[in-house]
Amino acid sequence: MEKVLVLIPAYNEGTRIAAVVKRVQGVVPDYDILVVNDGSSDNTAEEAAVAGARVVSHPFNMGYGVAIQTGYKYAHAEGYDFIAQIDGDGQHDPVYIPRLLEPVIKGKTDFAIGSRFLEVDSYEPSLARRIGMAFFRKIVSYITSTRITDSTSGYQAFSRDVIRFFTTEVFPCDYPDADMLITLHLAGFRIMELPVRMYSNVEGKSMHSGLKPFYYIFKMLLSIFVTLLRKRNSIGR
């Protein structure tokens, strides 16, 4: 039987993380759940543990990219075959976890992205976020020669080979979004998008989108530029 880990990065989600964990348990009760507590100043770690998740905590806030790579290293060390990843703020509906995992488990793809734009959805980002999403959608689709509609989605599932790849220094810890997809493409991994539902009206600030939109665009462009400067053999599998 496949060994699957549901990874949930979280920062100051003490009021929501237990509900997220419980919803995941309701959908995939046989999967292990790991919450990476990124130096929260509230009771995120305690609430996650009481809800039944495994918890790894950073001593201080290190950022989204470092938090998810901590989860990848944990999964690699513990011998997991697959990861399903969702955000800890409740914007991702766990009911789609099996949909994302299915093509990965069956070997049809290495990396599955949950897209909020493949079907009509209730997700309504701000104008600035819509501009940024559209911009990077075009860049990633052009570079990878694959139609990608949601390059900034943190709702993902991937294989053991991708887990191992993400534990190395090629993983872009600073801004792991569009540049992460480009890195996977350059390394020869297969990428697939599947429709999922997300919620844009979650209160508070998402850990996945903590930067101001236009500053984020600048930093992501810089990161993509650095990624493309690397030789293919330096980011091979």
TrEMBL record:
Q: Which InterPro entries match?
A: Glyco_trans_2-like (IPR001173), Glycosyltransferase_2 (IPR050256), Nucleotide-diphossugar_trans (IPR029044)
* Stored Pfam families: Glycos_transf_2
Q: Name one GO molecular function term.
A: transferase activity
Q: Could you list this entry's UniProt keywords, alphabetically sorted.
A: Transferase
- Glycosyltransferase 2-like domain residues: 6-163
Return the CDD domains for the record.
Answer: DPM_DPG-synthase_like
| Record-given protein name | Glycosyl transferase, family 2
Q: What is the lineage of its organism?
A: Bacteria, Pseudomonadati, Nitrospirota, Nitrospiria, Nitrospirales
